[in-house]
Each structure stands twice: as structure tokens, then as C-alpha cells.
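Proteins fold reproducibly. Next comes an illustrative record:
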Amino acid sequence: MVTILNFEQYRHISSPGWRLGWTWEKREVIWWMQGAQAIEQGNCSEFKKNLPHCCKRNPVIVDLLPGTNFNKQAPNCCRGGVLSSRVQDSSRAVSSFQLAVGCAKNTLSTVIPPVNFMISGPGPGYTCSNPINGNVSIFIDPDGRRTTEALKSWNVTCIYSQTLAHKGPTCCVSLSSFYNPDIVPCPLCSCSCQDMPSLAGQCVNGNSSVLEMHTSKSPLEEAKDIVRCTRHMCPVRIHWHVMLSYKHLWRVKITLNNFNHAKNYTDWNLVAQHPNLGSINQVFSFNYQPLDRYGGTVNDSGMFWGIKGYNDILLQGGNVQTDILLNKDQGAFTFSHGWAFPRRIYFNGDDCVMPPPDAYPTLPNGSLPAPLDSALSLVLVGFLSVLVLLLGV
């Protein structure tokens, strides 16, 4: 039994799903598989009948698709290799399959696990350890009345690196506010430049022939980015807009734009870091979950994701957006020095490029007493007083 567990809080494995590979130490073959399949059978010519499922020394395994016949399924299989993040859906953050190994030419006490494990999710980015002995696995029957133990268990840990996964960033952030008419765009060439196709994939301006060519790819291959030609050249842009200020609350709009003509982002998620996220009052049209990144001492990070069947898919050329209401912490709240804007933004687990701090929207005349609504109230009261005096005259 092979089980893949995704312990990432906010990084999931999207379609076309995970691929798992390893190298056999000897001349092992896979006689049969349940819940998954090897993408190649390899050379099984030495077997005259009852051919093994896979004879390759370095097999690559993929999950079965939804709707697979019941007699080919295993627990937690058959989702096309898609794994959810732990926060979004922990029950779908696990995948497993079974296989029978032959020709190992050793006894149970001398069984040697394979080496050189690799996993893609769906592209590169993961680096895996060697197998180490783990606690013996316990299996519980579906009726819960019987348990069995594995004879041996090994653990392999794979760590993700954004630098290995992508040649450049994959998203960027733009900013705006109600108190400044200027919109701070994503930095120039945030993810690539239009004259650097090796980083950004292909840059198009509604070129339908390029899009039609892309649809013929293999279902096991990850789509190469076909990005709309922009100054930032990012597949995804997140826009943070400070909308309004009330007496005890302030309001923010977050918009996600998909500039990738080759991909719908299914089960997307966004993580924001801001000191006021520990005082969220209400989130509209998105799911939200605070993230405990510091052992409960500081609550400045939260994860947003779409509502199933409503806005959980970020379509090609489309956008999704939400408003969030935050309570004002009178001891810390201010609009000065860019405090109202996020410190970091992550999309699908990848760090997004932020504008430089000196480019953030500034307050009128360079400063504004905090809180803003108090200052506006004083201005309004002063104006009404003058109006009353004029009318009295």
C-alpha cells in the first residue's frame, strides 16, 4: 500500500495531478496495481504469459480517473491525481493505491525498498528523501471491527521549492485606495518580459490559432502558460483595494485576475499576510480560514478560497473577487506608511511579487490623522458651521 499525504496548508496538487516515480534496487516488476497505474509497461518479453503490469526499473505511477470501475479502485484513489490542501479539504489531501511486487529475490526480513523517489505536482518542484523505517502502519476494516498491521513501513518526505518549480514568479500584486486616485500596478516584468518567452511561455493578444493548438496536449501533460501580453507578464494578478473607512470598521476588496489563456485554476486559494487579519469581521463570497503560523502568538495570516460550485474555478480571462470587513484596532490602525496594504500575498502556495514600498498609495498631502473617518467628520462639521454662519448673515 502506497499512501501520499499532502501536509501543505495552502498548496494543493491540481490537474493533471501527481506523478510518483522510483527506481527498483534489483529486477523487481509490478504484477498488478489497484487504484493507480504505471504510464508504461516496459519490456516484459522474458515473461511468456501472464505479463506483469509494469517491467520498467524506474516506473512512473499516476492516479486513476474519477468514474473508474469499482473493481479497480482502492481507498482514496481515482481523483485524477488531484490533492487538496490541508486547510481547504483535509479528507481529499490523501491518495493511495496498492501494488503487488514480484521478482524481488529476497525474503521479508531482507526486503529493500526502492530508491530515487520523485513526485511531480503536477510539474517539478519537489525533492524527496530516501526511504526511512517508519512506525508499522495499522489498517482498519470499513466496518471498524477489525484491524491488521503491515509487516514493514517506510516513509519518504518530499519538500517543495518554488525556485525549482518555476523559472520565475507566477503572480503579482497591484494596489489602490479610496484616498488616492493613483493605481499602483504590478512591477514591470514581475514574472517575465515580453521579449523573454522562455520564462513566460507564449505571449498572445487574442491569437486564437495559438489557443487551438494548445488544446491538443496530452491529458497527462501540464499546460504551458499562454499569457496575455501585459507589462507584468504574470498568469495571475491579485488586486488589493482599500475601499472605505467607517468608525469602527474598514473595508477591502480583493480581486484575482487570470491572464493565462491556457489554464483554469481549479480549487484556487490565496493567502494574505496583514497585521489586522486577526480582527476580520466578515468575508463576502469567499471561504476564509486564519492560519496559525506562530504557535498562536500572532494571528496575521489567513487563507481565502472559492465557494464550491460558485467561484472555486478561476476561469481563463476571468476574475473572482470578495469584500472583507475588518475591525479597527485603535492601538495600531492607520492609513499612513502603507499600513493598510498586505505584507505578502501567495496564490496557490507561490509567493507573489509585491510593488516596492515607496510606490504604495500615499495619503493626501503626504499624511492624514488617524483614523481617517474622524478627520473627515471634523472637516464636515467645520463646513456645516461655516454654512450656518453664512445663512445667519
About this structure: The chain is about 10% helix and 35% strand. The chain has two domains: 2-163, 169-377.
